[in-house]
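Q: Given only this backbone (71 positions), what sequence would you predict?
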């Protein structure tokens, strides 16, 4: 599987969701937060899988401003 900057990934063995920051050959630099601490680490691409968002978690619902009509 190939990765691109901005992809969300996890370690095959389990990990927090991480964001791909750089791709360098067969190595991928990932960033993630642990509480308020930002982490960054280089992983072999073979150890990562793309994150699959749970159903409905990435649904964007537009919010309309309140109507200006007086009733």
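A: Predicted residues:
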């Amino acid at each position: 599987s190939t990765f691109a900057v901005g992809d969300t990934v996890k370690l095959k063995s389990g990990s927090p969701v991480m964001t791909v920051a750089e791709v360098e050959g067969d190595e991928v630099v990932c960033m993630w937060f642990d509480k308020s601490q930002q982490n960054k680490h280089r992983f072999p691409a073979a150890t990562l899988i793309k994150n699959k968002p749970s159903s409905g978690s990435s649904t964007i619902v537009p919010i309309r401003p309140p109507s200006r009509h007086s009733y």
